[in-house]
């Protein structure tokens, strides 16, 4: 263990808040890791961000029993338009990113919808957007991470291990850290590629090998400002548009498009405020919505939580595109939740927990079900276990923000833990961080 904090970059120290003797927030966090070590490493570590602040609808019990490492890293540090790189801290939100980048004529290749989604959460979990059919998941646009490991050492991981200052025992490829749920180290900084504003934004794209499908990249510009508080919710606007059998091209401001599902939390708000899309309500009170997910979680009583768990589904399953129709029938029969979210994405063949079955990049689709199940005699545990079993059978994956009913053996049947477990052993994580399964399984959450 080093006696002094590691040499954090000057630009970061200048950009971070925190007044612990002039140290940056990253240095303060490093000192907390050292303190944990000196006190005998009695419990696991986790980030000190309260569970109710996360966008996931669940609150982890482990926050109350583990050593909380406080992290106050929420700044955009640099936009390098020459290298097309954005340098940010892990608590930077997608709302912050779009507010800055679109104002200077830039954007990101993959920018998930909800304003409050953070960079760290999208790396340790995952993120997807309508552009993912071309660029992959959120983690696939990342170029490097800086982390503090369990022993307090500071490392920078890049796709090429020879360019990493990580120790030989630490694979340099960022893919090793994806979906890890913070169970390998504490993420501090990331670098990510940005995309020019006129980069073929309206070019149709047909995935190779899937001649029956043609997904259009719908990044478009101004005319219908769908993000204004008095406008209809986006999914209702699309529904009405389709009902009238209209044809045409609609232009939307880019930032409004990116956050098109924020005001209605996709379509969850129709269950929370059934009259929320009424024109009178929108004009008078639309500026008040959506309620923060963190507020809903913080004020949710135990009885309401149990009712919500038993009578509401929030799940995303990632399945190969070739299995999509089979998957849709399964979703329909097992839970019967509509509307349903469909978002195709390219899944590269890279090391890590999530990759195609073969050695080649494959087209997958994210199927998201958010709402009240309409299937008769719905029982959350049995129905979700049945759905998870199907997803495993087609070599699909469950997004880990939602309830996971799988046991440990089933979980590691779904995810490839070979590199993950090797890394945990090499970096001495077994006594420092809980295994990812122990953070996301049903028993670990309220």
| CATH topology group of the largest domain | Uridine Diphospho-n-acetylenolpyruvylglucosamine Reductase, domain 3
Rough outline? globular
> In percent, how helical is the residue content?
25-40%
CATH class of the largest domain: Alpha Beta
Structural class: alpha+beta
Q: Tally of extended strands?
A: 15
What integer value in Å does the Rg equal? Answer: 22 Å
Number of domains: 3
Mean pLDDT: 78
Strand content: 15-25%
Low-confidence stretches: 1-23, 161-174, 188-221
> Main β-sheet: number of strands, strand sense, barrel status?
5 strands, antiparallel
What is the architecture of the largest domain at the second tier of CATH? 2-Layer Sandwich
Distance between the termini: 36 Å
Instruction: Please list the strands of the largest sheet in the order they lie side by side.
Output: 3-4-8-6-7
Helical stretch tally: 16
Kindly describe this structure:
This protein is an alpha+beta fold and 446 residues long. It folds into three domains: 10-196, Uridine Diphospho-n-acetylenolpyruvylglucosamine Reductase, domain 3; 204-298, no CATH class; 302-444, no CATH class. It has 16 helices and 15 strands. The protein has helices spanning 10-15, 25-38, 94-101, 119-124, 132-135, 234-243, 254-258, 269-272, 279-285, 293-298, 302-311, 324-334, 380-393, 408-414, 418-426, 436-440; strands at 45-47, 67-69, 76-80, 85-88, 106-107, 142-148, 154-157, 186-193, 195-196, 204-205, 215-216, 313-320, 340-347, 362-371, 397-398. Strands 3-4-8-6-7 form a five-stranded antiparallel beta sheet. It has a four-stranded antiparallel beta sheet with strand order 13-14-12-15. The chain has a two-stranded parallel sheet with strand order 1-2. A hairpin with a 4-residue loop joins β3 (76-80) and β4. The two termini are 36 Å apart.
